[in-house]
């Protein structure tokens, strides 16, 4: 890490800035629950695919102004959206030994806050852009640890392809050092994901609040977390064996188990809608017809279906047939977060 002294107060305008692009990721073995809230340390390890759709582009420009200004999709952020970014920048400023405020301009091309990993692409792009703007010289692993502190799942979007997030050990500083993401070597498997968007609206309960309540109150949480550790080991082996059906089976059971644990929270949390269930039924029907298609669902009603690239047209058509409320997007493995040369957009 490079230590940069605070800029000379007499300087007319501080010009340091960075622009980065990052894509969302969909977990095949989910992250659900923190063992240390302040450090974003997960209870379990998780594994995801970084997508090639819905990129977020973020510019961080240091200013001489008195406060951080955050512009998300053209609107100035206030309340929680602003304070999450400000807290994240405070953490970056602490590490860089600098105290300038920043202007953050972020454009997200996917649905925001609808359970389609917008916080993952958002904080991955912010981490990369802010590290550049504040002069932090970090490698990919360190960048993933920084992104994790904006939103846990963001640590996985630092890398492309299949990515594992190690839960790490301990809390506080020790946990922080050992909890990072890393890519799984090689183009081991190259499937498609058909994202069935049934609802674009931002969800009523954030995944942060929902996972806190699930951990604290659901009698199904511990059994899910224990099963998830086994799922992670089996998933890594299934990916290495290039066995799409095993990857899909593990992903589907892991996601449905996570939703079962939420249903048992007190009060119960239910992200699944009748439309989500209709898609799940169609996935079962596809399998009965011999198509290897498997569903996963994050903290929202939208369903993502894993299948072989060659089956994509059939799966896509079958999901659209479920009703006019379904809009689909096909995704494949996408790249990790990257700085945009030249910075300014
Ligand atoms: C269901 O990463 O959004 O998508 O760390 O509190 O910001 P915070 O939570 P977040 O949770 C993602 C939950 C999930 C599963 C996953 O991506 O692994």
From TrEMBL:
GO CC term (a single one): cytosol
InterPro entries listed in its UniProt record: GHMP_kinase_C_sf, Mev_decarb, Mev_diP_decarb, MVD-like_N, Mvd1_C, Ribosomal_Su5_D2-typ_SF, Ribsml_uS5_D2-typ_fold_subgr
Record-annotated Diphosphomevalonate decarboxylase-like N-terminal domain positions: 22-171
Gene Ontology MF, one: diphosphomevalonate decarboxylase activity
GO biological process entries: isopentenyl diphosphate biosynthetic process, mevalonate pathway
Record keywords: ATP-binding, Lipid biosynthesis, Lipid metabolism, Lyase, Nucleotide-binding
Record-annotated Mvd1 C-terminal domain positions: 194-322
EC assignment: 4.1.1.33
One Pfam family named in its UniProt record: MVD-like_N
Chain segments annotated as coiled-coil in the UniProt record: none
Top-level enzyme category: lyase
Family per similarity comment: Belongs to the diphosphomevalonate decarboxylase family.
Protein name in UniProt: diphosphomevalonate decarboxylase
Source organism of this protein record: Nocardia arthritidis
Name of the gene this protein is made from: mvaD
């Amino acid at each position: 890490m490079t230590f940069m002294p605070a800029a000379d107060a007499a300087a007319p305008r501080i010009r340091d800035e960075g622009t980065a692009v990052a894509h969302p990721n969909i977990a095949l073995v989910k992250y659900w629950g923190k063992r240390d809230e302040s450090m974003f340390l997960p209870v379990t390890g998780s594994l995801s695919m970084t997508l090639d759709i819905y990129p977020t582009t973020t510019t961080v420009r240091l200013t001489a102004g008195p406060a951080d200004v955050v512009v998300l999709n053209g609107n100035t952020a206030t309340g929680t959206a602003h304070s999450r970014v400000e807290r994240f920048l405070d953490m970056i400023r602490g590490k860089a030994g600098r105290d300038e405020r920043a202007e953050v301009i972020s454009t997200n091309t996917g649905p925001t806050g609808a359970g389609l990993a917008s916080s993952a692409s958002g904080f991955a792009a912010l981490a990369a852009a802010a590290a550049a703007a504040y002069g932090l010289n970090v490698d990919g692993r360190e960048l993933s640890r920084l992104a994790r502190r904006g939103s846990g799942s963001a640590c996985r979007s630092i890398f492309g392809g299949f990515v594992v997030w190690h839960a790490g050990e301990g809390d506080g500083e020790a946990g922080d050092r050992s909890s990072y993401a890393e890519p799984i070597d090689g183009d081991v498997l190259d499937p498609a994901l058909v994202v069935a968007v049934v609802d674009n609206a931002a969800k009523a309960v954030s995944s942060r609040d929902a996972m806190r309540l699930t951990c604290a109150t659901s009698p199904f949480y511990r059994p899910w977390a224990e099963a998830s550790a086994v799922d992670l080991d089996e998933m890594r082996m299934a990916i290495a064996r290039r066995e799409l059906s095993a990857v899909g089976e593990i992903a589907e059971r892991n996601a449905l188990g996570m939703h079962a644990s939420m249903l048992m929270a007190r009060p119960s949390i239910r992200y699944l809608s009748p439309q989500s269930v209709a898609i799940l039924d169609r996935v079962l029907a596809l399998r009965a017809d011999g198509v290897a298609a498997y569903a996963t669902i994050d903290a929202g009603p939208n369903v993502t279906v894993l299948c072989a690239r060659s089956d994509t047209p059939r799966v896509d058509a079958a999901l659209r047939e479920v009703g006019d409320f379904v809009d689909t997007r096909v995704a494949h493995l996408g790249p990790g977060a990257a700085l945009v040369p030249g910075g300014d957009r």
